[in-house]
Amino acid sequence: MKKSGQLLSFILVCFVGFLMGFGSSVAETLVTKYAETLGALPGAIGVVSSVCWISALLVLPISAPLLDAFNKKWIYFFSAMMLLIAYVGFAFSNSVSSLIFFRLINGIGKGVANAVCMAIASDVLDEDKKTQGVVYCSLAMAVSMAFAPSVGLYISNRYGYSVLFLFSAVVIGITMVLALMIRTAKGNGVIRISLQNMIAKGSIEPAVLMLFLATAYSTVNSFIVVYATGMNINDIGIYFSVYSLVLMISRPLLTQLSKIAEAFTITSVRDSLPMVIYTQ
Q1: What is the DSSP string of 55-70?
Q2: Is-above-0.85 flag for pTM?
Q3: How many whole angstroms separate alpha carbon 73 and alpha carbon 76?
């Protein structure tokens, strides 16, 4: 792929990631509050929140072989379609049980869409820029969170939850169209589902670490809007804006720090006694 086409595809995938993060955050930040308006008790609100992540967790190992087998932009297209269906379902849900059902669909779409977005960002760049590409793509998603919850609160207060969820569905629909414009390679057409293809041994330790971090994060964020409402705090959107601002500053910085740490590790190993003896 030429440099100009490479840059265009990368900008496009970052924009798709930004819009996907925005559309998802607008809807999903307030889905627990919406469940409360449907009469859900705290336990049921917890189920509404967690069932999305459970379905995302279950589908992620299967998504890895699919990314190798098929064109990634089409995988994004169909996973985003599941998000769209989920948000339209939210808009017309009038019971907690139907909301939980569509949250299951939401989780499947979200799990695959996030993974494939990062994979495309990695694929369209040269080998030496892949790490930076993934970081900036994830940063684009994070930036959208700076104002998405505030937009969601405004729409829900002014027009109601149905309009809010339909708005999110439209945003996701736009990403589906944009994703088809990204130049991506065709897959090998072979689906190999095995533990070796689904699980990378080197990623187990970071995955366990992320499990605990994500658990702490979701425990707070799932109830933050409901808690703020109960405490008569009207400006809870500021919380998400500050959180995203810190991400915007810290992620590029941490990318540079990781390079320094990697270089330091390589230098330390190279200059160690065993390596000095080996290279003599």
Answers
A1: HHHHHHHHHHHHHHHS
A2: no
A3: 5
